[in-house]
Amino acid sequence: MNASWPEPQEFWSKRRVCVTGGAGFLGSFVVEKLRQRGATDIFVPTIEEYDLVKPEDIGRVLDASRPDVIIHLAAHVGGIGANREHPAEFFYDNLMMGVQLMHAAWKRGVEKFVAIGTVCAYPKFTPIPFREENLWDGYPEETNAPYGLAKKMLLVQAQAYRQQYGFNAIYLLPVNLYGPRDNFDLQTSHVVPALTRRLFEAKEHGENEISVWGDGTATREFLYVEDAAEGIILAAERYNGSEPVNLGSGMEISIKVLAETLARLIGFEGTVVWDTSKPNGQPRRALDISRAEHGFGFRARMDFEEGLRRTIEWYSLWRGEA
Known about the structure:
- This protein is α/β, with parallel strands linked by helices.
- It has eleven helices and eleven strands.
- The radius of gyration is 19 Å and the shape is globular.
C-alpha cells in the first residue's frame, strides 16, 4: 500500500456519504463495503422518494444528507434493446441527473464527487485495449450512443469544474458488470443476466434451442460487481486526478464463448442459434486497466467462471423465492 494513501477507517469514519443508486445492483455492494470500511453516516436516496432528474429533489437530497462525499451511481440503464427503444429517455435522464447533481454539489461545498461513467462512452472502433486517451477519438456505437454521451458529459463537467472552481470531481469508466442481485428482467437487462435467465428457462421447459442477438463474434469484458464496488471506493479514498480511469478485469471474451460457458454451467444441452438480423452492438470491448492499478491500487480479483457460478446460484435462489 502506498504510504500516502489514507487508512479506510480514518477516511470514512469522519465523512458523511451520499450514494445515489445505493439501493441498486452495484450500489448495494458499494454501501456494504463502505460500512465495512468504517462509514457510519451513509444516505441512500430511493427512487420512490427522490426523482434526481428534478432539481428540487436534488436539493432535498442534499438537505437531508449534507454530504462530504457523493458517489453518483444512479442511472437509467438497459441492454441494446432498451437503448434502441428509449434513446431520448436514456439521454435526458442520465444527463440531467448527473449535471444538476454535480453543479449542486459544487455550490454546496461538497468535498468530493465520484462520477460513474460507462464503457459505452468509448468510440465504436476503439483500438484494443481501450485506453482512456482514446475516449474522444470517434463517435460511440450507435445503439447506445445517447446513453454513452450523456454519461460522458460528466467527465467534461468534472474537468471544467476542477479547472475553474478547484472542485474535486473524479470520473470512472466501469466495463460491463455482472454478479448476484443483477437485473434479470429480459426487457432491460444486460447480456449476462439476460442469457442466464433465458438458458435457465429453456432448460426448465425442455427447449432444444435459444435464439441470441447478433452473430456471437462481438467481444466484451466483464467485471464482477464486488470488484467494481471495491474499485469505486478505492478511487474515492485515493484518487484525486482530473483524468478518467477505466475499471475492468482485463479479460476479453466473445459473446459466443460467454453463451457456451453459461450453457455449460447451467446444464442447458440445446443449441444457441444466432439471430444475425439483430445488432451485435460494439464489435469489441476490452480495457487497459493499468491507470487504476497505478492510480489507486485497484485490480480485479474474481475469477470469471467463479463469478458466473455465484451469479447463477443467486439467480436460482431468487427465482425460487420470487
